[in-house]
Design brief:
Number of strands: 13
Number of helices: 10
Strand content: 15-25%
Shape: globular
CATH class of the largest domain: Alpha Beta
Distance between the termini: 46 Å
Order of helices and strands: EHEHEHEEHEEEHHEEEEHHEHH
Radius of gyration: 20 Å
Length: 309
C-alpha cells in the first residue's frame, strides 16, 4: 500500500519546512508527499520547490480554502499518474515522530485485512509543551451539545471530547470521530465519500466528512503509539475573521445535514454561547484588555447570527 501524504500551505513556510523535514525519510518507505500551496505571498511555493524537489507541488493562484485545496491536491496526483491507494491528510503545523505515519498505515492495513471493512485512523496529538491536545470527539446528543454553550471551556471540552473506548485491536482506541490534523484512510474510502465539501472554505470540513462517513458506519480509531506534535492549536474564536468563518461553517454543515432545524439550532447555540460569554465577562472587562477583546469578538458574532440569512 503506497500512501500519499497531503499537506495544504498558506504562508508560514517555517512551519511547513519543519514538517517536511520530519517526513522526508518516509519517501523511502512507501510514501509520496504532495503539497498544495493556497496562493501564499511569502514565497512558500518557491522555497518548497527549491528545497524539496521530491515533493509533488501544486501552486494555486489564490486561497481556495482548505477543503478545495485538499481535493485538488489528490486529484492532481491522480492526473499525474502517481500510484497510491491510501491517503494521509496532514496539517503543515505538525511535527510527526518518524514512526507515527507508518504506524497509522500499518494499523489501517491490519484492520481492513481483519475486518474486511474500511476505517479511518488518527494519531494522538501533543502541544509543543507536551500536553495532550484532544483531536477526538464523542457522540453526544444535540441537547448535550447545546448545553456546552453555557459551560466553561474546560467543562465543555470534557463533554465534547468524551473518553476513548478500547477496540478488538490492543493498539487501537475507538472514538466517534477525529479532526483533520492528521487522518489516514484508503483512497477508495476517500473517493467513495467524495472528498471534502468544497462549499466549506475553512473549519468543520472534517465534521461534515465524519457525518458522511458515519452514515456508512465507518469507524474512527486512534493509534496509541502514533504521536504528532501540533505547533498550532489556538482557538479560531481568538480572531474575529476566523471566528466568523468558524460559525458560518458550523451553520452550513448543520443545515446541510439537518435542514432548517439544523440551521436554527446552530443560530440558537451560537447566540447562547456568545451571550453567556458576554454576560459573565461584563463585570471584568474594564480590568482585562484580553477579556475586552474576546467580548468584542462575541458581540460581533451575535450580530453575525442575525446578518446571515
Amino acid at each position: 500500500m503506497k500512501t500519499a501524504i497531503i499537506i495544504v500551505t498558506y504562508n508560514k513556510f517555517d512551519l511547513t519546512n519543519a514538517c517536511l523535514w520530519c517526513i522526508m525519510p518516509l519517501l523511502q518507505r512507501g510514501f509520496e508527499i504532495a503539497v498544495v500551496d493556497n496562493g501564499s505571498t511569502d514565497q512558500t511555493a518557491q522555497k518548497i520547490r527549491e528545497n524539496f524537489p521530491q515533493v509533488h507541488l501544486l501552486e494555486l493562484q489564490k486561497n481556495m480554502g482548505y477543503a478545495t485545496a485538499t481535493n485538488m491536491a489528490i486529484q492532481n496526483l491522480a492526473k499525474k499518474g502517481v500510484d497510491f491507494d491510501a491517503i494521509c491528510l496532514l496539517h503543515n503545523d505538525v511535527l510527526p515522530k518518524l514512526q507515527s505515519l507508518p504506524l497509522l498505515k500499518n494499523s489501517l492495513i491490519k484492520y481492513k485485512n481483519t475486518h474486511q471493512k474500511e476505517a479511518i485512523v488518527a494519531p494522538f496529538v501533543k502541544a509543543s509543551n507536551g500536553s495532550i491536545q484532544k483531536n477526538y470527539y464523542a457522540k453526544i446528543t444535540p441537547f448535550q451539545f447545546f448545553l456546552t454553550a453555557f459551560k466553561s471551556k474546560e467543562t465543555a471540552s470534557k463533554k465534547i471530547h468524551g473518553v476513548l473506548s478500547p477496540s478488538s485491536d490492543p493498539s487501537l482506541f475507538e472514538t466517534y470521530r477525529t479532526n483533520s490534523i492528521c487522518l489516514m484512510m484508503s483512497r477508495p474510502l476517500w473517493e467513495m465519500l467524495g472528498g471534502f465539501d468544497q462549499d466549506i472554505f475553512l473549519y468543520h470540513e472534517d465534521l461534515d466528512f465524519a457525518m458522511r462517513a458515519k452514515k456508512l458506519n465507518i469507524p474512527y480509531f486512534m493509534e496509541r503509539q502514533a504521536i504528532i506534535t501540533h505547533l498550532g492549536g489556538e482557538s479560531p474564536l481568538l480572531t474575529l475573521t476566523n471566528a466568523i468563518k468558524y460559525d458560518n461553517s458550523q451553520e452550513y454543515v448543520f443545515q446541510k445535514h439537518f435542514g432548517l432545524k439544523g440551521k436554527l439550532f446552530s443560530k440558537l447555540y451560537r447566540f447562547s454561547r456568545s451571550f453567556t460569554k458576554l454576560l459573565f465577562s461584563f463585570p471584568f472587562i474594564a480590568f482585562s484588555p484580553s477579556l475586552k477583546k474576546k467580548s468584542n469578538i462575541h458581540l460581533q458574532l451575535l450580530k453575525n447570527i442575525f446578518s446571515t440569512p
